Automatic annotation (TrEMBL):
It comes from the Bacteria. Gene3D superfamilies: 6.10.140.190, Winged helix-like DNA-binding domain superfamily/Winged helix DNA-binding domain. Residues 91-173 form the Transcription regulator PadR C-terminal domain. Pfam families: PadR (PF03551), Vir_act_alpha_C (PF10400). Residues 7-79 form the Transcription regulator PadR N-terminal domain. InterPro entries: Tscrpt_reg_PadR_C, Tscrpt_reg_PadR_N, WH-like_DNA-bd_sf, WH_DNA-bd_sf. This is PadR family transcriptional regulator.
Amino acid sequence: MSLPHAILTSLLEKPCTGAELARRFDKSLGHFWQATHQQIYRELGKLEGERLIAARGLATARGSQRHFDVLPRGRAELERWSLRQADPRPIRDSLLVRLRAAAVLGTVDMSAEIRRHRELHADTLERYRTIEARDFPPGVSLERAGELQRAVLRAGIVFEESWLAWCDETLAVRQ
């Protein structure tokens, strides 16, 4: 995945200012693709330079702000990117390398760190389940777009559940 495509996706959902985009990104796509506000603003400039998005000024109480809209060329790029094949990415997590190092060293107890990670994953899982209950209550039928958005959230839920199961399994092994 690339940040420009995540930004195009978010702007197609709802055109907004850079500040609004950064806040929304933290609350939605940011769960699955990390970016700093500085990276988001830099990409907005690049997307505008490539004529994939356009900015228009909005008068506010504090002056003017730039409001970004996706242009037809940006939509076409997002469609092209969405249809391309991509292989699954391998796991890349420093905890797993540190656990391997602990195994080689034979002197390091990783159980406290695994418990800490378990808590972090449990917190994230709870956040995702709260979002699911709020945005996708049982018994409410969804349009195709809503079903796909729910599928993304469900991927996050299943991911966190698998990490919790792995943490529990690993903690059961003598460190």
